[in-house]
Specification:
The complex is a heterodimer. Chain A is an alpha+beta fold. Chain A is built from 15 helices and 19 strands. In chain A, helix 10 runs antiparallel to helix 11. Classes of the chains: A alpha+beta, B alpha/beta.
Chain lengths: 461, 127
């Protein structure tokens, strides 16, 4: 998971630094403080890992929506640095270890880039990139990493050369630290390997492609790094979108607005490919048994928490209309009915979409204001369920959530909170620094965290 | 030297006092109205006060009398009795204006600053 971000020049994120902890990370703050910009950065990062820089910029609204506005102009550069640690696995044919558990290791990474929007305003490109990788035997937080003093297994840099093309340079490389993909220096003897890797990378790189993408995308062992960086799916569920009919051929995976629910439920019902959600999912490695537990039955149990009259749910593929039909089986006393998804309440569908997304999402899961449409009791439940899913999945993963709900906050813990504010047009995000005292007061008084937040009692000086 | 922390009733009081005393914490009690018991207010002042008392003293508590039958003095007595159970170890100054707090502060900001033992900021003096 990404454990720390440093961003300069993306919307209101300037001189912005924030560390994440596994589990829930909840952004609170007034309207306009930049909570959504933090979430948007992850979305942008996800696109940067999947598409070339101009296309990624276009997907999130264009350069005007990405580069920081100053007066009536834009800042020309976005600098970003991402530190993370992700579980990876050696290739199955690796000669050293045959046992699956023995092949598992952690990959520590530190990826930074400068993205430029030139005066010509005709493209967006990477001016400079650096990717540091290291094999470690346990999960490491950002505070344990110092890029300059760290002995990296591989430290690769690329910079735009005089002819406008990027030139790769291998600053450091040791076999024991990390194994770079074979295709970077196929059949080259060890003595000449570094030059060969630099040459291959220089040929493979383009100014609009992420270095992390080029190095990790096609490597079995390193693909979790790029999957980690590209996992920033944001959810802002709109029930009216969830209700729209879905084509039978639609691939599973909950989309930003909640669409894709029928296709995802259908895939889960067939118990086919929960690990295959998302555009890069064929490279995303995760222990299969953990994902198999994301079954439809589990979703039904969660659904019954919000609506006790729902006895069952099924999806069938209607060949006549070529559409997926989701049916809810309702029982209330003697009354029974089968109700199509379009007629279910907004709150029920929002709940179902959020929980389904949580069960099937990749490393970063961002959800904006999950409280909308939900009964206050269920606002608390959504926090508990997300926490339970994260805990059970064991993988180091975090969920980013924005909220304005005091009710929802009452179910949160002080250490999960990130207080966001705006100062001089810059977003500032800080952890609460009186967590222990707040926890003690919550235990003593029974007041929830929401009370302390609305009373302005959470210090973040 | 006085280093006061404030516990006030609503948004306007919070903004106003924060403007006068930008370095002091101003917390909202978030609990008032005609039918809220004084004990309930004291419990909230207690928990917020305990979070402040290590760094800030005195604590200045301001909440409206609203439409309560008791006089401001009687409410203060009742409030202090309830506050005795809250384990607060710093001096508490209680203000229960009969009229809107903002009117009270606007009427005499110098007196307000004097009673709080603070320097009034230049842009507020003579408001």
């Amino acid at each position: 998971m990404i454990t720390r971000i440093e961003v300069d020049g993306f919307k209101s994120l300037t001189g912005f630094k924030l560390s994440f902890v596994p589990g829930l990370n909840i952004l609170v703050g007034p309207n306009g403080s930049g909570k959504t910009n933090i979430v948007s950065f992850f979305e942008f990062l996800g696109h940067l890992m999947e598409a070339e820089a101009s296309e990624a910029t276009s997907r999130v609204g264009g350069a005007g929506a990405v580069f920081r506005r100053v007066g009536s102009d834009y800042e020309k550069r976005i600098h970003a640095r991402l530190i993370g640690c992700v579980q990876a696995m050696e290739e199955p044919h690796h000669p050293r270890k045959k046992n699956r558990d023995a092949r598992i290791f952690y990959c520590l990474y530190d990826y930074s880039f400068s993205l430029v929007f030139p005066d010509t305003r005709d493209k967006v490109f990477f001016e400079k990139q650096r990717l540091c990788l290291k094999r470690v035997d346990r999960f490491m937080t950002a505070s344990e990493v110092d890029r300059e003093t760290e002995k990296w297994g591989a430290d690769i840099e690329s910079e735009i050369g005089p002819d406008g093309s990027p030139v790769a340079k291998l600053r450091e490389y040791t076999d024991s630290g990390i194994e770079l993909p074979y295709y970077l220096a196929p059949g080259v003897q060890k003595a000449h390997r570094e030059q060969a890797i630099e040459k291959t990378l220089t040929q493979a790189l383009a100014s609009n492609i992420s270095l992390a993408h080029v190095i990790c995308r096609y490597s079995f062992e390193l693909s979790p790094v790029v999957s980690d960086l590209s996992g920033g799916q944001i959810y802002n569920i709109v029930p009216s979108r969830v209700k729209l009919p879905e084509d039978s051929a639609k691939p599973p995976g909950i989309q930003r607005d909640g669409s894709g629910l029928a296709a995802t439920l259908y895939a889960l019902q067939r118990a086919t490919y929960p690990e295959h959600f998302g555009p890069w999912s064929h490279l995303y490695w995760a222990p299969r048994e953990e994902l198999v537990s994301s079954s439809l039955n589990e979703l039904k149990e969660y659904l019954q928490l919000v609506n006790t009259t729902i006895e069952d749910i099924d999806v069938f593929n209607d060949p006549f209309d070529n559409q997926l039909r989701v049916r809810f089986h309702i029982r209330s006393g003697e009354y029974t009915a089968v109700v199509p998804m379009a007629l279910m309440s907004d709150g029920t569908l929002k709940w179902l979409a959020v929980v389904t997304a949580a069960l099937t999402a990749r490393s970063v899961f961002c959800i904006e204001e999950p409280e909308n449409y939900l009964h206050p009791q269920m606002q608390g439940q959504i926090v508990n369920i997300l926490r339970e899913i994260l805990f059970r999945q064991k993988a180091d993963r975090f969920t980013l959530m924005t909220t304005h709900s005091e009710t929802l906050l009452n179910h949160c813990r002080p250490e999960e909170l990130i207080i966001v504010s705006m100062s001089d047009g810059k977003t500032i995000a800080l952890r609460c620094n009186n967590m222990a005292e707040i926890s003690e007061e919550i235990q003593r008084t029974g007041f929830g965290l929401g009370y302390y937040y609305t009373s302005n009692a959470l210090q973040n000086e | 030297m006085s280093n006061p922390g404030f516990l006030v009733e609503g948004d306007l009081e919070q903004k106003f006092i924060q403007n006068i005393c930008p370095k002091s914490p101003v917390r909202k009690i978030n609990c008032n109205g005609d039918d809220v018991s004084i004990e309930a207010i004291a419990r909230r002042v207690g928990t917020l006060g305990r979070l402040l008392q290590k760094r800030w003293r005195p604590l200045i508590v301001v909440f409206d009398r609203e439409q309560r039958y008791a006089s401001g003095t009687e409410i203060e007595t009742q409030f202090r009795e309830a506050l005795d159970r809250e384990d607060l170890k710093v001096p508490i100054i209680v203000g229960i204006p009969d009229r809107d707090t903002e009117t009270w502060i606007l009427a005499d900001p110098e007196r307000f600053a004097l009673s709080a033992g603070i320097q009034i900021s230049a842009n507020i003096a003579g408001v």
